[in-house]
Amino acid sequence: MSEKVFVLGGEQTDFQRNWTKEGKTFMSMMREVLDDALEKVGISYDEIKRLNKENRVAVFVGNFDAEQYANQGHLGAFLTEVNPALFGVPGARYEAACASGSVALDAAITHIRAEDYDLAIVLGVEVMKTVSSSVGGDFLGTAAYYDKEAKGVQFPFPKLFGKLADVILERYELKEERFMDALAEISRINYANAKRNPKAQTRTWFMNKEHAMARGGDNNMAVGGRLCITDCSQVTDGAAVTILASKDYTKEYAKKTGRKIDDIPRVKGWGHRVAPITFEAKKQESVGDKYILPWTRQTVKDAYKRADMDVKNIDVFETHDCFTSSEYAAISAFGISEPGKEHIAIEEGTIDFGGKKPINPSGGLIGVGHPVGASGVRMMLDLYKQVTNTAGDYQVKGAKNGLMLNIGGSATTNFVFILGK
Prior knowledge:
By secondary structure, this protein is α/β, with parallel strands linked by helices.
């Protein structure tokens, strides 16, 4: 399976919207985002019909927990409700907690590489504002080992990633003040980047370093150990679509749309690894390893190897900053710094928007928002924008290759993709 996989583009919803307050459902979201994505890419529903006659198109839906948030399963079949052109098109829902979007991308990429389909529509979706934050926190707990790590625990995931912060401090023998200052800087960077992104949930919010450092008060309450509200990603309603294609179809598409195939990015590398599901098991397994999350590091290494690249070749990163501690650990996993030296890269401005290795110019999960099943698809879309120089105000100058890391659970499921021209 050596077939190249190209990314033609896509679209996302405005992550600031509250669809329940608008009187709309996940179905409204799916219709709107797919209509917008096809229009943006320049593919019509008539073209979908044409491809379907030859069994050349399929749909891959990433979603974590519509059964609880929306009382609905079987989301892969709901594309038939979007448009009759999708009647008969193969479609399925893919789930891997917060990496649900990436497992859908992975399935689509694999099918194209195997030459099963020429066009793959990947749609990530999550509606989360249908319930209170405490109920939603319990739903999210099922992404961990629920009975052991989440049952009866209020907001279990902030506490799990608070434990990650604890382990980072202990293993690397860091000064707590310096480490917490680095986490605050990660928060500041993501919120600042989001202000440039017209689809970001927090683009109109106020946030600065002083606020992020003022932990424990009424305006920045503790939610999990050392972590406070400013260390957390958002509860978000949202959907994103990324459209993938085979080389043969991309040639057809380029000819029809007047684009050059050399200007359309392709997936150059990928990695997928699964660590022990409980955080305690991860902690114990990593004793003696210089990486606290060794399987996350291995996933990155797998992607680099398949792409025949290293960190020096990557111009921009989109990472899974569900909490500031997860982004902190990702810095060394990418190879930007040595393990235990991540704070230095942060202090030197390496990961800032104008730095040598910018992370989350989109704003990340902290700034853009985190509709769980859509985040991986949104990351791929943002890599596409960066490497095609179409990211607008949050464009990283000269970006040719981008890498994304999307994780599910407490860094249990790990996916990495590298995109470039």
